[in-house]
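In response to reviewer comment 3 from the previous cycle, which asked for concrete evidence that the modeling workflow produces usable outputs, we include below a single protein chain processed end to end. The sequence was submitted unchanged, and the resulting structure tokens are shown without manual editing.
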Amino acid sequence: MAEPQQSSLLALPRELRNHVLDYLLLDHHNAPISPLFPGKRTKGLKDIMFPSKTPNPASRRLAPLLVNKQLHIEFLEHAHLLYTSGHATAELDIMAKGYSLWPTWTRLPTLPLRNKPADLTIHLRVFSTEAFRPLGGGGSRAQGAGLRGLYALINNFIRMGRSLEFYLVNGDQGVPGQGLYVVDRLTVEVEFCDLYTPDTWAGTVREIVEGFGMLAGCGGFGESVGRVRVVSRFTVAGRVNWVEKEWVVRERGGALPWEKGGNAA
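The workflow returned the following structure tokens.
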């Protein structure tokens, strides 16, 4: 005998059930206004401030659909449609200030499907730019802590999915393993929220573009990411600057950014 919530759901027209499935398959949250009001956080490695409360596990959200055959079939059909239609987009808001990052999922597919690509869009809000400045000079020049933290969070999503509790970096060595998500396009949208140092914005975007271009060129994401895109629009001294770069990820060759030294955190 079906449970009351299952019976009520099956009594709805299929169109309405599809809206319910959309709600269950895509988890939405609001991003904090600024690092001054981030909500409860736990400090992790490399000054990444993780939310103390992570999104509910997919098993909890989807449990009512998995114990009824008809709902189970409809759920699988809708999940595949979500991915094949390109609507399975994960969105991660990251606030950057000083040498700290505050990540928050704002949209997240609750169930990864093997070999079904999702898109990952990172909305990077920069409240100060020092973490993205290169370290050292000459042959010893290394990327700043901000870029290294971004790389690690992306790697975390690919390997572990929705959880922000686990930081998949052991010292300075990347963690191998089969990932949960296959990302078709990784997009990094850079927005500047610091009104005091606009003279550093162009250099910051350049560092981010060069960093992700290098990562795509060396195949740093392996077979887990198809394309990488960086986009930013900012105005300095009345002049509007628009930057957009996209790369196809190549086969891996050489050391990855998180496998090198130079962390300032």
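The chain has one domain: 40-57+88-259. We consider this sufficient to address the reviewer's concern, and the full set will be provided in the supplementary archive.
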